[in-house]
């Protein structure tokens, strides 16, 4: 039995490694297409972490929505917006690099030292329900019904807005 | 002690995701690269919600619902952002954020 625990632990490390390596690839590669690939790999790793957090449903949704939909949209944006000669992302200017590194390291250290390391997060004394899809669905349709409806309105607005935005550009070019 | 059943592990991973997104946002020279980086920041936030949901929260459905909403918002945001980037590219023939200085299309 203990063997399976070690295997699960090793898989956890693998998912963390996927997340970090994908992120590194996304921010450091020169080709935009490789950045999108790194994003997909990293999101897949985060989906695995959701599984370890006890929610197979969110794992599925993460793969379906993020890896499946958002990455495809971004790939479309890369292919439509760039002529092949411009696919290589420009190297960043030298003056930006130290500022970016400094901001990120100080932000991470501040988060790590001040918040994560020093705070005791006390678990709730009693928990209601469980992590199952059934309980999520009941909450989504009873207690959080307004947010559920709002998100569908937001998605509809986004669809209409993106169609209008993309069309407007085309008409301007032909005139 | 198993590292995968510890709250701090997930918080640190989420912080690293946030930092990756921040760094990418500052150093990328194209609008699409900045969009990709923003996805990392959103994912770090969602992972934080899920971690607190698993280890701390009294109602274990709230964090999952919040993470679902973050995914929906991210999908809408990606669609809008890509169409804006396409419109900007048609207008300016450039993806450099610094080429877009005026608001008039």
Which terms summarize this structure?
heterodimer; A: 175 residues; mainly alpha; B: 105 residues; Helix Hairpins; elongated
Tell me what the structure shows.
The complex is a heterodimer of chains A (175) and B (105). The termini of chain A are far apart. Chain A has helices at 2-28, 32-52, 56-81, 96-116, 133-142, 145-174. Chain A folds into two domains: 1-90, NADH-ubiquinone/plastoquinone oxidoreductase chain 6, subunit NuoJ (Four Helix Bundle (Hemerythrin (Met), subunit A), Up-down Bundle), CATH 1.20.120.1200; 129-175. Chain A is mostly helical and 175 residues long. In chain A, helix 1 runs antiparallel to helix 2 (32-52) and helix 2 runs antiparallel to helix 3 (56-81). Chain B is an all-alpha fold and 105 residues long. Chain B has a single domain, classed as Orthogonal Bundle (Helix Hairpins), CATH 1.10.287.3510. Chain B is built from three helices and no strands. Chain B has helices at 7-27, 31-55, 62-92. In chain B, helix 1 packs antiparallel against helix 2 (31-55) and helix 2 (31-55) packs antiparallel against helix 3 (62-92). The longest helix of chain B has 31 residues, at 62-92. Chain B is elongated and about 55 Å long. Chain B starts with 6 loop residues before the first helix and ends in a 13-residue tail after the last helix.
Gist?
The complex is a heterodimer of chains A (175) and B (105). With 175 residues, chain A is mainly alpha-helical. Chain A has helices at 2-28, 32-52, 56-81, 96-116, 133-142, 145-174.
Count of strand segments of chain A: 0
Report the radius of gyration of chain A as a whole number of Å: 21 Å
**Form type of chain B:** elongated
Chain pair forming the biggest interface: A-B, 95 and 74 residues
The largest sheet of chain B is: none
What is the arithmetic mean of pLDDT of chain B? Answer: 86
Strand content of chain A: under 5%
- Distance from N terminus to C terminus of chain B (CA atoms, Å) equals 58 Å
How many strands appear in the DSSP assignment of chain B?
Answer: 0
Oligomeric category: heterodimer
CATH architecture of chain B: Orthogonal Bundle
Per CATH, which architecture of the largest domain in chain A? Answer: Up-down Bundle
Structural class of chain B: mainly alpha
Strand content of chain B: under 5%
Largest sheet of chain A: none
Give the helix proportion of chain A (percent range).
over 70%
Low-confidence stretches of chain B: none
CATH fold label of chain B: Helix Hairpins
Q: What would CATH call the class of the largest domain in chain A?
A: Mainly Alpha
CATH fold node name of the largest domain in chain A: Four Helix Bundle (Hemerythrin (Met), subunit A)
Helix content of chain B: over 70%
